[in-house]
Amino acid sequence: MKSAVLFTATALLALSMRVPPLTAAAACDTLGTLGLRGGTVTLAQGVAAGAFVPPATGRGRGAPPAPYADLPAFCRVAATLQPSSDSAIAVEVWMPASGWNGKLEAIGGQGWAGAIGYGSLRDALRRGYAAASTDTGHEGGSGQFALGHPEKLVDFGWRAVHEMTGAAS
Predict the structure, then answer these.
(1) Distance CA 112, CA 30 (A)
(2) What are φ and ψ of residue 84, in 5° steps?
């Protein structure tokens, strides 16, 4: 709990500061050193306006993803949460470098939702929200991950969104 509170306090402080972009990016980068209870921060980086390119999904949909040219500068934090010994919940939290509306939008998934919702993160960030998304503890769009893994099914059913929201807020 202390780690989540410290993470939130540092993130909110970084977002509320009126500082030049280089200093804001440096503050974002320091979030990578924070410890999360039951998880690990895997990435913390400032992203310049219009520079984010979503990762390729590997679903064979043609051309590589285009940059999200309409995005403002933001702080991107990725983490892996492990509330059980069989959990590996990927989450991303995007925080606007300026113009934050004071709200967090937690992005849910659809169907078997085994991916970070980059499009939904983009839409929330454009509206001034800090936003968080999760892969619900698995990759892909089927229920195969749950066979023989009851903890992963719990992650998918409710725990991933709960843990993501707690870590992001």
Answers:
(1) 33
(2) -135, 170
